[in-house]
């Protein structure tokens, strides 16, 4: 290959290295197009999964016996499907409540806590807190986000049953 056979850009960039002509601009552009397409496809899949409606409850499901829950305690169960953790709480007053256990900020688990004589639902990942009565965020990152998903309960014959979901804000 003579000097007259070299591309014009070689005169401007005379650096030589082994294998520098194995990757052409066209090959690099193809790689970028494929990479961009893969990223766009991945983002589209994540977006479509986030738009998918939540799983419908499988119906009435027994969670626990009222007598097994001491006031001021909580138990984890799965509802509406086997992949969604939820929290059944028996408040100090004896009131029974249930919420999805996934923080509305980034999805960390939420725990029932009693701090300084007050009950709350707490996300320890980012120090978020939720009101135990409504599931609304009260401090930390969840304060301005949607509340925790509430699970409707029925008590019958000393047993607690999950019977449905409530996605809206408490009124």
Automatic annotation (TrEMBL):
Organism: Sorangium atrum
Residue ranges of domain Rieske in the record: 61-162
Protein name in the entry: Rieske (2Fe-2S) protein
Source organism phylogeny: Bacteria, Pseudomonadati, Myxococcota, Polyangia, Polyangiales
Keywords noted in UniProt: 2Fe-2S, Iron, Iron-sulfur, Metal-binding
Pfam family, one: Rieske
């Amino acid at each position: 290959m003579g000097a007259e056979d070299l591309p014009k850009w070689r005169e401007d960039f005379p650096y030589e290295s082994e294998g520098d002509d194995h990757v052409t601009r066209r090959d690099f552009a193809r790689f970028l197009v494929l990479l961009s397409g893969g990223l766009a496809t991945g983002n589209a899949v994540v977006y479509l999964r986030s738009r998918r409606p939540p799983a419908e409850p499988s119906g009435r499901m027994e969670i626990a016996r009222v007598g097994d829950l001491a006031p001021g305690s909580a138990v984890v169960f799965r509802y509406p499907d086997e992949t969604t953790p939820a929290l059944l709480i028996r408040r100090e007053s004896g009131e029974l409540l249930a919420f999805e256990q996934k923080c509305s900020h980034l999805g960390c688990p939420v725990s029932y806590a009693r701090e300084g004589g007050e009950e709350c639902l707490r996300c320890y990942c980012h120090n978020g807190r939720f009101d135990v009565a409504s599931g609304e965020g009260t401090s930390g990152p969840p304060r301005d986000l949607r509340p925790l998903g509430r699970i409707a309960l029925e008590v019958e014959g000393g047993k607690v049953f999950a019977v449905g979901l409530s996605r809206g804000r408490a009124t």
